[in-house]
Amino acid sequence: MEPHGTLGPLGFRWREEDDFCEITVYSTPGEVVGGAVVVPGFLLDVQALMSAFEELVDVHWCSQPFGPQDHRGQHISIEGVYQGHEVYLEVLAEAPGDEEPGFKVDLSGSPGHP
Q1: Is 21 helix (H, G, I), strand (E, B) or coil?
Q2: 73 to each of 68, 86, 96, how far by Cα in Å?
Q3: Could you state, in order of their start, the residue ranges of all structural domains in the chain?
Q4: DSSP 45
Q5: CA distance 87 to 20
Q6: Average pLDDT for residues 5-20, to the nearest whole number?
Q7: pTM reported for the whole predicted model
């Protein structure tokens, strides 16, 4: 991931079942000093990510949620084999709605703040 600006820590969620692993990765939202929440933008080198897999089964870009119960939003999904394990990987454009801010940003330029 290459950030467009400030990018905080990556968040992830996963579940494992037998030899199958489902992983969801996203950039955590930021909190602007004063209370507003910002969603950091980033570039994702999809080709490099796909090349990490030993075998690719499927790759998809989802531009919109599938319905009101789908909280993933825009995301890319890659299914394949990684280090001998079946993996389903999702990289979300935005963190899930229940994710707390992972960093703070001071846009005022005050001394002593990043």
Answers
A1: strand
A2: 10, 24, 8
A3: 2-97
A4: -
A5: 6
A6: 87
A7: 0.81
Percentage of the chain modeled with pLDDT above 70: 94
Query: What confidence tens digit (pLDDT) does each residue in 32-88 have?
Result: 887 788 888 899 999 999 999 999 999 999 988 777 777 788 999 999 999 999 999
**Residue 6: CB partners within 8 Å, gap ≥ 6?**
30, 40, 103, 105
Please report where in the chains the tokens 């990490």 appear, as a residue: 52
Rounded-to-integer distance, Cα 64 and Cα 75, Å: 8
Token output for 111: 């001394």
Q: What is the 3-state secondary structure (H, E, C) of 58-104?
A: EEEEECCCCCCCCCCCCEEEEEEEECCEEEEEEEECCCCCCCCCCEE
Place 110 in a pLDDT band, splitting at 50, 70 and 90.
low
- Residue 15 tokens, joined: 């579940």
Measure the CA–CA gap between 27 and 94, rounded to whole angstroms. 7
**12's tokens:** 């992830």
Q: Are the C-beta atoms of 18 and 55 separated by less than 8 Å?
A: no
